[in-house]
Write a structure and sequence with these properties.
By secondary structure, this protein is α/β, with parallel strands linked by helices. It contains 12 helices and 12 strands. A hairpin with a 2-residue loop joins strand 2 and strand 3.
Length: 284
């Protein structure tokens, strides 16, 4: 893979004008909070918040970006020595996605019984996702932040109260789209279960749900988790995050009433709130 000049500048810690970045990639990097906005009067450019975090995101997204690891160590020769081949494989070596649960779930993998019941402090990774089947009465909750994903037991009361108040089943499988790929979305499209998205409460987080999940899974089988106390939470949220995202995501809308109300609330408060804030809402 040839790394664009604009990405090379970002990886070197420099600034790149908005017009120089691929629009789709820019939307994704902004949605993930990987870039900060630098304004120059009416002009705007972008800089990586953390070069190493950006590098890891790109590599997890597409192993074609592994060339960045080589460039980082300035060592194409060392890779040839270590692997016996200086040509980087374009095939992803680790397809799939992580799964987690706080209660045992009887599933199937490759047509054989597969119990999802990770010990506290761990989770499972499903590589052969095409053959992964779950009971039809299980709600799939997608969690954007890995800290929330790892600590689901500390949020159990929060999830149970939300599911009960919204008429959902209390049987839950938690999933994450780390590493960043389309495998999770493709799996959601082949199962009949409802998908509940738990992400950051900001414009970028809503954009991820709308354009990475809902438009593929469908409105009937997907929804955005909106806590009852989100209005009070947003009041103590981040105004800076809202300002950074505004120009890029100010026009997003939803014809789902509850989600559109959340969008309007975010604009009204001019704040954003991270989903990590719900980790400490209850104890183990």
């Amino acid at each position: 893979m040839v790394i664009s000049a604009s990405l090379q500048v970002l990886m070197a810690g420099g600034q790149v004008a908005a017009s120089k970045l691929n629009g789709k990639l820019l939307d994704e990097l902004m949605a993930e909070g990987l870039l900060s906005v630098v304004t120059h009067g009416s002009r705007k450019s972008y800089r990586a918040r953390d070069v190493e975090v950006l590098r890891r995101f790109l590599i997890d997204k597409d192993e074609g970006y592994r060339i960045l690891e080589v460039e980082a160590s300035d060592s194409r020769a060392s890779m040839a020595t270590g692997t016996g081949n200086s040509k980087l494989a374009m095939v992803r070596s680790c397809p799939g996605f992580p799964v987690n649960s706080y209660d045992p779930i009887e599933c199937f993998l490759g047509g054989k019984p597969f119990m999802v019941n990770p010990q506290d402090g761990s989770f499972l990774f499903v590589a052969e996702w095409e053959t992964f089947m779950i009971p039809k009465d299980v709600i799939v909750i997608g969690i954007e932040n890995m800290e929330n994903f790892r600590m689901i037991r500390r949020q159990r009361m929060f999830f149970e109260e939300y599911l009960r108040s919204h008429g959902f089943s209390n049987k839950v499988l938690f999933v994450s789209r780390y590493p960043q790929s389309t495998d999770l979305r493709r799996w959601l499209c082949i199962i009949p279960n409802h998908y509940l998205h738990f992400g950051d409460f900001d414009l970028a987080g809503i954009s991820i749900f709308l354009f990475e999940f809902q438009q593929y899974v469908g409105k009937e089988r997907s929804s955005f988790l909106i806590p009852d106390d989100i209005e009070s939470r947003l009041k103590s949220g981040s105004g800076k995050r809202y300002d950074e995202q505004y120009c890029r995501f100010k026009d997003i809308q939803s014809d789902v009433r509850e989600l559109q109300q959340l969008i309007e609330l975010i604009h009204h408060e001019r704040k954003a709130f991270d989903q990590e804030g719900y980790i400490c809402c209850n104890t183990l």
